[in-house]
Amino acid sequence: MGRIIYTLLLVFSVTLGLHAQQENEVKTDAEKSIWSPTMKAAIEKATTENKPILIYFTGSDWCGPCINLDKNLFHTEKFEEFATENLALYTADFPRNRDLVSKENRKINKELIHRYDQSSFPTIILVDAKGEVLGRKNGAYLPEYYFPFFEKIVSQYK
User: Fold this and answer.
1) Average pLDDT of the chain?
2) Are 107 and 118 part of one and the same domain?
3) Average pLDDT of span 54-78
4) Please, which contacts does 62-70 make with residues 24 or more away whose CB atoms are closer than 8 Å?
5) Domain containing residue 78: CATH number
6) What is the tens place of the pLDDT at every residue in 88-100?
């Protein structure tokens, strides 16, 4: 009887330890994200680091071109290196599942969509820290077509 209890405790301890390790790994990945969690954080980063802000208007759970752009542009090593060096990033997401975006961000995103007269997805707008538009790309293109656009905006900004 004692061996059974000991074995169950051992299995439980190992399982709990693995679960805690996985949670720590998820937190570490979230901390490494190059995307600002709020527009306010993106503005602060843009101000302190003298960078333009890339606002990505998307419907992350329903817009096919948005999902494709996210996968083939924003999650590439080339983009991550470029953005880390040159941009502050914010995603203005309009998913069908409203639980994917905080109530605060939904409010800000709605304000952004009106401020920038945004009506199609995906759209990328680059702005300065004061919110003045530096450039805009509506629709989805091949990922390599975005880099000359980004580079031109960044070079003019500095």
Assistant:
1) 87
2) yes
3) 97
4) 62/95, 62/96, 63/121, 63/122, 65/121, 65/122, 65/139, 65/140, 66/121, 66/122, 66/140, 68/140, 69/122, 69/140, 69/143
5) 3.40.30.10
6) 999 999 999 999 9
CA separation for the pair 100, 121 (Å, rounded) = 17
Q: Is residue 28 located within the same domain as residue 41?
A: no
Output the pTM of the full model: 0.80
Range of the domain at 84: 34-157
Supply 147's token pair. Answer: 């880099």
Q: Where are the alpha helices (DSSP H) in the chain?
A: 2-31, 39-49, 64-69, 77-86, 103-115, 146-157
Is 68 in the same domain as 127?
Answer: yes
Alpha carbon distance, N-terminus to C-terminus of the chain: 73
Instruction: Tell me: pLDDT of 19 over 50.
Output: no
83 with 150, same domain? yes
Residue 138 C-alpha from the chain's centroid = 18
